[in-house]
Amino acid sequence: MRHKHILITGGCGFVGSSLALRLKEKFPQNRITTVDNLSRKGSELNRVRLLEAGIECKKDDVRYAETFTSFDSVDLILDCAAEPSVLAGKDGSPLYALETNLWGTVQVLELARRTNAEIIFLSSSRVYPVRELNAIKIIETDTRFKIDPAQTMPGVTERGISEEFPMGKERTLYGATKLSSEMLIAEYALLYGTRAIINRCGVIAGPWQFGKVDQGIAVLWMARHIFSNQKLSYIGWGGEGKQVRDFLHPDDLFDALSYELENFDALVGNTFNLGGGVSHSVSLQELTQICEKITGRNIVIDSVPETRWGDVRLYISDNLRFEKISGLKPKRGVEVIMSDIHTWIINHKDILSPIFAA
Ligand SMILES: NC(=O)c1ccc[n+]([C@@H]2O[C@H](COP(=O)([O-])OP(=O)(O)OC[C@H]3O[C@@H](n4cnc5c(N)ncnc54)[C@H](O)[C@@H]3O)[C@@H](O)[C@H]2O)c1
Fold first, then answer.
1. CB 3.0 to 4.6 Å from 62: which of 43, 104, 165, 291, for a disulfide?
2. Is the pTM of this model over 0.85?
3. H/E run at residue 255
4. Residue 125 alpha carbon, nearest atom of ligand 1
């Protein structure tokens, strides 16, 4: 692998640490450095795991140019630092999210310009606009919303949402920072020859994600079933828990990124939708059933019919473009993801209860 020194921003987060540890296992000779300011609750636990695996961890902030001045030989940057909440800025200043998600990308691009590092950017399905996503024709079943096969919205089939989806207007501040970052990457590619691949991910879920109400729904759902001192709520869309997302296991994300690293020259400049896809999609109601089956517990779930600002009724990644090129399909389904999360929480209850049971 030609990327001898890999920098992972947000490396102590869920995605960053998952990728860092898998990369270190696959390429033990390569140098991996992470930069993370440890602002996400729980990220300090991932830091310990990274250090144990021989990964360098810099506690620093991606918003500032000085964080990157000491790096002079980076071959690849995996940009995983973010304020990833779709509610960012809703009840206060948007500045932290804007500075981290957008100005942080600028710092990464500047480092790439200086060192010729290549970039894999973790973008999001949230680049697609809220109003148009909620205008997708839907069929309602007993447990979930489904995409109506008689669809008129461009870029939508029963497989999900493709890269051809219209880009419309509002997409939440989080989504706007991700789309703006993508646009800056394109400009750096044109002006300075910066080489990057962009992945627009749906929900990624698995162990070592410190799920909370506004981000990390799979872990939050399982944690609340295990530490049943707190309730859950079906919020929005009538309050019946029929909203749907596709889930991607970190191992499937790693398989896709490994393919991208091996085929970087052929894939450079591409933007891919990357998610679990329709066969690994689930509604909240169905997620509850899975949690009940795995834990043997039923908890009270409230119903809040009103839909929150920026919420989306259904998102399923149509991975066809990436699948056609790579021949890869996500292998691990929602049950596997939830069962992995369950095992992780049970095996680490002592260190996780201050985070999830608080
Ligand atoms: N998890 C998902 O479902 C999902 C889906 C689509 C895209 N993504 C993208 O993947 C990336 C990683 O997301 P995640 O789920 O691992 O989130 P996360 O919150 O677990 O990780 C982000 C990390 O960035 C760090 N961070 C935040 N602000 C920082 C700053 N100013 N300087 C340095 N570090 C900072 C946090 O401490 C945290 O460890 C993000 O770019 C996110 O937008 C995630």
1. 104
2. yes
3. helix 250-262
4. 6
